[in-house]
Write the C-alpha cells for this entry.
Amino acid sequence: MTYRRAKSLDVLVDEFNTLFPGRSTLSDGWIGDDAHASRDSDHNPWVKDGAVGVVTAEDITEDNEGGHSEIIDWAFAIIIERRDPRVKYLIHEGRICRSYDKPGIPAWTWSKYTGLNAHTKHGHVSVLPEKRFYDSTAPWGLLTASKPKPKPPVNTRVDQARAHLEAARELLDVAYDARKNATVKASIKTADSHARAALLAIKAVD
C-alpha cells in the first residue's frame, strides 16, 4: 500500500529542523514498525486519502546530547497554549495531553500515560484524522516563539556542583564548631540547600 505522512506533521518537523539544525533525529519517526502494525496506533497509515494511506503521528527526538534537552517540553507548551485545532494528543515522559475531554480529565491537561512506551526519548504528536486538520499547512508557532535556552556545557555544570558542595562543607564546619550556637539550625538548613542543589547539578550532568 502507498502511504505518506500528514502534511501538518511535515510542517512541524520542518519547524524543528529550522530552529535546531544540528538536533539529533535518532528517535524521529512516523511510519510504524511491525510492533505498531499489530496494534491500534496513529503510526499506521489507517487514514485514507483516496487510495493513499496517511500516517497521522510523528515522534520527535528529545536531543539531550546536542544540548536541546528541553525542546519537546518547550514545543508542547506552545502547542497547548495555542490549542492547536489539529492536535489529537501529545505524549512525553509518561504523560499524555489530549485535545478532548475524558472522564475526570479536562482537555489540554496532562495526565498519566499507561501505554507500553513512556516516550522518554522522544515526544509524540498525533493529529486528527480529518483531512482539513491532518493536511493543514498552517504554522505551528514554533518559529515565532522564544527559543529555549540550551543547557550550559558539562564543565560549567560540574563547576556549579563543586561550588555548591564546597559551600555546604564550609557551612557544616561552622555548624559543628558552634553546636550550642542558636544559628546552628539555620546553618545546617542552608548547607542542606546547597547539597541539594549540587545533587541536581550532578544529575543534570548524568
Residues 18 and 172 are 49 Å apart (CA to CA).
